[in-house]
């Protein structure tokens, strides 16, 4: 019994004037040799560690509040509080404190709250040693009382003495009786004085006075006094709002009368603080610190009492998930949980931990899965807020649930996929809810908050789950909006059918999404060579920007998972279609995605970019932007400047060999000339290496017969296919360039000679169905003075509006001399061919019109 009586929580006041819970334990008072005096000791109930060791100083002011709280200050900015489970335990410790200080245990404060400056200021005032004499509580004395209350607020000593006088004489109840009389008599002047009096008493910041003022008997009269602000022409109607407009709804009847009373009191006191009282000035901000503490401890008690009543919470969950529950009732239940979770934010970490574990045990996540799929916007919004509390508190708990759920459910009803669906189908034109959900998804997929265990890591398990079960849902709008005129095949193979989002038709059941196709705008702006469309709808563009932000986050944090996905889906090509959007913010999002990939300096990514000729849409966008000096212009140039500064050789060679003629006219920055310089320096180094090889070895390389060359070429292709087979990604789709480029000087020479042999012997070329096809500028056609185009240089369909500058592909105007892409070596035999290429009219760069 003694353990329960002495059970306490230790609180300290932080810099934000909020109470921090330091733990729960058992308090005792004993003599401590090191401190040379009687001290308060609190040992943790969990492990017996010492939570508090505080000497009872004879000059320290201890305050007893609400029968179960003892508050004091150990230093200038270090306030402590003990919250007792039982009043009897608080009384016992209070007696010990009073005994040490030689005080009567009946007092609520053991010392006067005073600082040195106040002591000096009022030391000449003899009345400070006595209680303040209050005027008699009569109508004709209200002005005098108001002046007295207002005058003491600047002095901590006098505030304390006035509070004691008000408490000892039961003065507040007498004042409230006068309020009723003034209101009946319509005595406006008296009501204005009572406003000043009650407001001043609140600013005395005394918990014992609050207990009287906020009791069921007095609180409505206190609110009534605060309606009559002299600064207002007409009094406010706060009591009417609290009694008629604000209705207390019990989703499940609360049988505990103390809990009901505490809920009512907390709501009304919060209303007084937030609505009725004016915002305190800088000089008044500490006047209501005790009022804030009063509300805080009330909320802690409410959450604790509800949490301990498992029967009540079990009934709430049962009704929330019951299909027979009507929509109005379900809305009230969800709003209750939203408020309940909001109250829990007042708890300290260890208490919040127990709180959310209780909710998880009762099934909060399966319940959210149901209500987030409902078509009631208010319910979905409240469910999203609850979900955000859970993710913020413990993303690991949410991840563990969805991975367990995946073993028993289909992909289309997984909680995370429901969340993604809500993000995509947000009805807000500004996508406010989608932004919130995107932030929650980013928290869930952030490896920084994932835990590692001895056997497995949460990171690998969850990311495998996410990319297998959820990633296709997240990217479906992106892939669908960047396809030509078809829905993404893999999207429907996964059996995930979305709603027709742009009509925002939501079904009550989330177990099967109604079919939907993303809106593809007819008004196409800036087609590329494949005539792929780009979404011009502002809301579509916003959604795609959010998805790209998440994908960019994945590139930075998920390494090989996102790399596999990008390669398998040819995702970067699809993203770069968005460079054609009329919405610059969306084009910048697409560019930022590519910039993050290049920023990794991963040769695997670099090879994918060069093979796919994926700089083409970026350079097209730069040229289309013309001479405009804007964010798009700066971002594109920064991308190339990064490649130059970091000296990424494979990308530098690709850019210079394929696009330099189109970029050399840009002279307001030295980026592209710098890239050309880097490229030429690398060629010189390669030439020096070549010259260091004995001439007999070099000459022997060219004396093999055509048959040997053909066998070597076949071996090289086979090796390349084997390498591709060993890679962790599948080959990209046919829309990309169909060829591998030679990676070394040796392969380049073998391929060059083999190609010439094929041309001479009129051998058949490999086609795309065979997996490979090379078209080099030094083929037979080049020798005859004509330029052959690369596989990416396809002529687009004629534009119906006659605008050729928008539809002409950059690659058609720049000869793709693939043979020199990686080899970086000049040969005497090729000089004439290079001169022919430079004089060809087809080599003029594309300029933005």
Automatic annotation (TrEMBL):
Region of interest (Disordered), residue spans: 714-849
Coiled-coil residues: none
Q: Which Pfam families match?
A: EVH1_PP4R3, PP4R3
> Hey, which family's this protein in?
Belongs to the SMEK family.
Protein name per UniProt:
Serine/threonine-protein phosphatase 4 regulatory subunit 3B isoform X5
Domain annotation Serine/threonine-protein phosphatase 4 regulatory subunit 3-like central: ranges: 144-681
Task: State the organism of origin.
Answer: Ursus maritimus (Polar bear)
Q: What are this entry's molecular-function GO terms?
A: protein phosphatase activator activity
């Amino acid at each position: 019994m003694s353990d329960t009586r002495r059970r306490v929580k230790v609180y300290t006041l932080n810099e934000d004037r909020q109470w921090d819970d330091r733990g729960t334990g058992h308090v005792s008072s004993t003599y401590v040799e090191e401190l040379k005096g009687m001290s308060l000791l609190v040992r943790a109930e969990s492990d017996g560690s010492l939570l508090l060791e505080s000497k009872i100083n004879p000059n320290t002011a201890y305050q007893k509040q609400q029968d179960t709280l003892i508050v004091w200050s150990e230093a200038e900015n270090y306030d402590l509080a003990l919250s007792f489970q039982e009043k009897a335990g608080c009384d016992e410790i209070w007696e010990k404190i009073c005994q040490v200080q030689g005080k009567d245990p009946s007092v609520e404060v053991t010392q006067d709250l005073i600082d040195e400056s106040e002591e000096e200021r009022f030391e000449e005032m003899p009345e400070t040693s006595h209680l303040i004499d209050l005027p008699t509580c009569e109508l004709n004395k209200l002005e005098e009382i108001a002046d007295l209350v207002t005058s003491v607020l600047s002095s901590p000593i006098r505030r304390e003495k006035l509070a004691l006088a008000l408490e000892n004489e039961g003065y507040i109840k007498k004042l409230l009786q006068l309020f009723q009389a003034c209101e009946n008599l319509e005595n406006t002047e008296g009501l204005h004085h009572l406003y000043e009096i009650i407001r001043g008493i609140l600013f005395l910041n005394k918990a014992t006075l609050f207990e009287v003022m906020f009791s069921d008997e007095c609180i409505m009269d206190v609110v009534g006094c605060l309606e009559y602000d002299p600064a207002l022409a007409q009094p406010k109607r706060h009591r009417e709002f609290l009694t008629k407009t604000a209705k207390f709804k019990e989703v499940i009847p609360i049988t505990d009368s103390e809990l009901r009373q505490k809920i009512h009191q907390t709501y009304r006191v919060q209303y007084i603080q937030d609505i009725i009282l004016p915002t305190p000035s800088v000089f008044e901000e500490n006047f209501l610190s005790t009022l804030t503490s009063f509300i805080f401890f009330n909320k802690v008690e409410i959450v604790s009492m509800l949490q301990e009543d498992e029967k009540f919470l079990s009934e709430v969950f049962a009704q929330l998930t019951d299909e027979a529950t009507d929509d109005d009732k379900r809305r009230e239940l969800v709003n209750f949980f939203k408020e309940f979770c909001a109250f829990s934010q007042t708890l300290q970490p260890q208490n919040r931990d127990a709180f959310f574990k209780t909710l998880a045990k009762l099934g909060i996540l399966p319940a959210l899965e149901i209500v987030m799929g409902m078509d009631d916007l208010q319910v979905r919004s409240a469910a999203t807020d609850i979900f955000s509390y859970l993710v913020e508190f413990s993303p690991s708990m949410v991840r563990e649930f969805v991975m367990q759920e995946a073993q028993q459910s289909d992909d289309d009803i997984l909680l995370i996929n429901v969340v993604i669906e809500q993000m995509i189908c947000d009805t807000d034109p500004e996508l406010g809810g989608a932004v919130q959900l995107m932030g929650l998804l980013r928290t869930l997929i952030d490896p920084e908050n994932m835990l590692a265990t001895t056997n497995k890591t949460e990171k690998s398990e969850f990311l495998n789950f996410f990319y297998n079960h959820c990633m296709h849902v997240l990217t479906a709008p992106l892939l669908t909006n960047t396809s030509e005129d078809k829905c993404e095949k893999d999207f429907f193979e996964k059996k995930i059918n979305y709603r027709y989002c742009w009509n925002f038709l939501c079904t009550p059941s989330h177990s099967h999404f109604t079919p939907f196709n993303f809106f593809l705008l007819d008004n196409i702006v800036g087609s590329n060579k494949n005539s792929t469309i780009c979404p011009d709808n502002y809301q579509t563009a916003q959604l795609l920007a959010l998805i790209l932000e998440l994908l960019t986050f994945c590139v930075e944090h998920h390494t090989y998972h996102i790399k596999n996905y990008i390669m398998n889906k040819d995702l970067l090509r699809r993203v770069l279609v968005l460079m054609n959007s009329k919405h610059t913010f969306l084009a910048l999002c697409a560019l930022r995605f590519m910039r993050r990939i290049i920023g990794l300096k991963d040769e695997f990514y670099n090879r994918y970019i060069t093979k796919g000729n994926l700089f083409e849409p970026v350079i097209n966008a730069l040229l289309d932007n013309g001479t405009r000096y804007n964010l798009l212009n700066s971002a594109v140039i920064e991308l190339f400047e990064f490649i130059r500064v970091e000296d990424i050789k494979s990308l530098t060679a690709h850019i210079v060999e394929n696009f330099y003629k189109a970029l050399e006219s840009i002279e307001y920055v030295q980026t592209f000339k710098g890239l050309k310089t880097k490229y030429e320096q690398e060629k010189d180094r390669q030439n020096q290496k070549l010259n260091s090889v004995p001439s007999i070895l070099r000459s022997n390389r060219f004396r093999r017969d055509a048959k040997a060359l053909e066998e070597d070429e076949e071996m090289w292709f086979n090796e390349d296919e084997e390498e591709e087979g060993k890679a962790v990604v599948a080959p990209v789709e046919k829309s990309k360039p169909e060829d591998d480029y030679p990676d070394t000087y040796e392969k380049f020479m073998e391929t060059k000679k083999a190609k010439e042999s094929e041309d001479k012997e009129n051998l058949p070329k490999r086609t795309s169905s065979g997996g490979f096809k090379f078209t080099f500028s030094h083929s037979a056609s080049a020798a005859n003075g004509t330029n052959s185009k690369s596989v990416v240089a396809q002529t687009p369909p004629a534009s119906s509006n006659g605008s050729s500058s928008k539809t002409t592909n950059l690659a058609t105007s720049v000869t793709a001399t693939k043979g020199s892409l990686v080899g970086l070596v000049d040969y005497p035999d090729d000089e004439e061919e290079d001169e022919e290429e430079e004089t060809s009219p087809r080599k003029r760069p594309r300029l933005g019109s």
